UniProtKB/TrEMBL annotation:
It comes from the Bacteria. Signal peptide: none annotated. It comes from Motiliproteus coralliicola. Residues 9-124 form the Transposase IS200-like domain. One of its GO terms (molecular function) is DNA binding. This is Transposase. The lineage of its organism: Bacteria, Pseudomonadati, Pseudomonadota, Gammaproteobacteria, Oceanospirillales. It holds the Pfam family Y1_Tnp.
Length: 232
């Protein structure tokens, strides 16, 4: 069966996941994390992509990124893969693949899921029992989005900026979002659709994507008649 064309919509946020091959560690020292983030800033500028939220875990990466062009996201992730693999293999005297095949990505319905995706990404270290609060984890966008720390990686999305009139007001509103847990259904929607490269959003959003891309944005029901249907 032919592989579906990746769903990429210029100007739309996308949730992106890339994992280490066989779940192996892709970050070992603080310098590894810093190198990845520095290169991410450089390539986002080159390929016209904006990162709104991110987390670098030991063996995988989550990004919430809006590309300006149709090929921007693919070029960004391909470039990151090449540069980082070269760096990592040199540092640790290894050869071969580092990442687990293609990166996973899904366009995100801004109105319904954008801020939930922010939280989903930045809560990864909490779900992994690495920290009790996202502010305690140094390799994510939470300290920028929630605490106002300078982070050259992060470019706020307009819906994030709409949380308040100024930085302080936005930070208070953003931190308040973390006072409640993410709805398990929303969490499952984000996880499953990203893994399968389907759109994250409601029916209206998915229909709009299908009209714009001529590509299915969600799985179709299996064809054929159910057993026993002829007897009804």
């Amino acid at each position: 069966m032919a592989r579906l064309k990746r769903l990429v919509l210029p100007g739309q946020p996308h949730h992106v996941i890339v994992r280490g091959n066989n779940r192996q560690a892709v970050f070992v020292t603080d310098e590894d994390y810093r190198f990845y983030l520095e290169k991410l800033v450089e390539l986002c500028e080159r390929y016209r992509c904006a990162i709104h939220a991110y987390v670098l875990m030991t063996n995988h990466v989550h990004l919430l990124v809006t590309p300006d062009t149709k090929d921007g996201l693919g070029r960004l992730m391909q470039g990151m893969g090449r540069y980082y693999v070269r760096y990592f293999n040199h540092c640790y005297r290894r050869t071969g693949a580092l990442w687990e095949g293609r990166f996973k990505s899904a366009p995100v319905d801004s109105e319904r899921y954008l801020l939930t995706c922010y939280r989903y990404i930045e809560l990864n270290p909490v779900r992994a029992a690495m920290v009790e609060h996202p502010a305690q984890y140094p390799w994510s966008s939470y300290r920028s989005n929630g605490l106002g720390e300078d982070d050259p990686v992060v470019i706020p999305h307009p819906l994030f900026q709409a949380l308040g009139q100024g930085d302080k007001e936005r930070q208070v509103a953003y931190k308040a979002l973390f006072d409640r847990a993410i709805d398990p259904k929303d969490e499952a929607e984000i996880r499953w659709n990203t893994a399968k490269s389907w759109a994250i959003g409601d029916t209206r959003f998915k229909e709009q994507i299908e009209q714009a891309t001529a590509r299915a944005a969600s799985p179709r029901p299996r064809g054929g008649r159910r057993r026993g249907a002829a007897k009804q």
